[in-house]
Specification:
This protein is α/β, with parallel strands linked by helices. It has 16 helices and 17 strands. The strands form 3 sheets. The protein has a 9-stranded mixed sheet with strand order 16-15-14-13-7-12-11-8-17, with helices on both faces. Strands 3-2-1-4-5-6 form a 6-stranded parallel sheet, sandwiched between helices. It is globular, with a radius of gyration of 24 Å. The termini are far apart.
Length: 489
Amino acid sequence: MTHPTPASLLTIFGATGDLSRRMLLPSLYHLQAEGLLPEDLRILATARTEMTRDSFLQLAAESIHARDPGARPDDAALQGLLQRIDYLPAGTDDAGSMQALAAQIQRLRRGDVLYHLSTAPKFYGAICQALAAHGAAGAGTRVMLEKPIGNDLASAVAINDAVARAFNESRIYRVDHYLGKEGVQNLIALRFGNALFEPLWNSRQIEQVQITVAETVGVEGRGDYYDEAGALRDMVQNHLLQLLCLVAMEPPARFDPTAVRNEKIKVLRSLRAIDQHSVTSETVRGQYSAGAIEGRLVPGYAEELGRPSQTETFVALRAHIDNWRWSGVPFYLRTGKRLPSRSTEIYLQFRKVPHSIFGGAAAADMRPNGLLIKLQPEERIELALMSKTPGLDRHGLRLSQVALDLDFHQEFRHAPRRIAYERLYLDAIEGNGTLFVRRDETEAAWEWVDAIAEGWREAGLAPRPYPAGTWGPGAAVALLDRLGHAWRE
């Protein structure tokens, strides 16, 4: 198999959209400022919007300013990036514009081409077919696809099939931007770069695992999309399951795309199905009602949407991985909107010591050790340990839980804070697929999630209300309480 060479042309579809303005253009600017983009890389921006190159360059400059309004962009870096960019409007419903776009791609390319489809997934197949029809999808091209790939297994298969008719699997890079976060990379380094944790990373030493992705925002103008998707499809199917895979997977033989993805798919295929017979005991659906976030009154989901809805904005579930390493360990997944704080974290609670030598108050103070991996808003790792409480102990020794704070952003405080797309762009430009999602992962995740959604329908399980600014319905607490556990908050 021939190895890809760095792309000489990056073509961004949907370049005037929200993702491009918030993440993609600022990421490219930072890479330009640090001299990390290939010297000969050109950028061709395209969207349905009719505008001139100068108009798009103004939009790009404004987007870069808006990302960090308190900082002044480096004028040389900004101009260097803008000089790389061309803009050409095109739409899949206009064959002439797609032909003109393909001709421009051929004029600009000097080697490999990377296409980034920052559009609605329903356009992926049509875009790829148009590129293929005009000779712009052959050898030396690859394509990045944004999530969600479909809204169930059947639609995911249809999209994947349509893209596969133009690009073979080795040239398809499915994005889950969580995999580009520094904290996720640090999870991989923590697990596989240290001898300390691997002997403990199993059901004999770990009692439970919690993965939380909490948001304070509501639907924020995405009501129509979100009401079709809901929290299960929007967050669990991709972000939470990808984090679960990285926590639970076996050590790959090497850190390369095939080895890492092979271990992740084993985890997904080991997930115990949750269906109509178990959804009521293993899952909780919720939908936020009016409440307060950070002292500010906010409306309920149905009010924001403007109509009644049975779509969930909160999901909590208990997953089981039926393999030797994790048998019997519950993995609690939780995600929702309008929760009290914005937080993404992974928490592993270790089993209690088999026997406490401490009596009296010290025995009551004993708490299990825990490993906390925070991904946002700050990236940090904490190891919770028991320590002696300072004092003369005239009434008996006392214990306190203290955090051994592995504050790597303090250790590396002079290193720049990265947007996830900076790493993802560099990897895709260079042809490294390790941090991207393979087709079988996507479809295995959809198969598991579809069973939950179907179970909800068959059981008539409607979302339970929870006030905005709280941690979801009370049933989410009961989900853990049944096994003597509690959410880390």
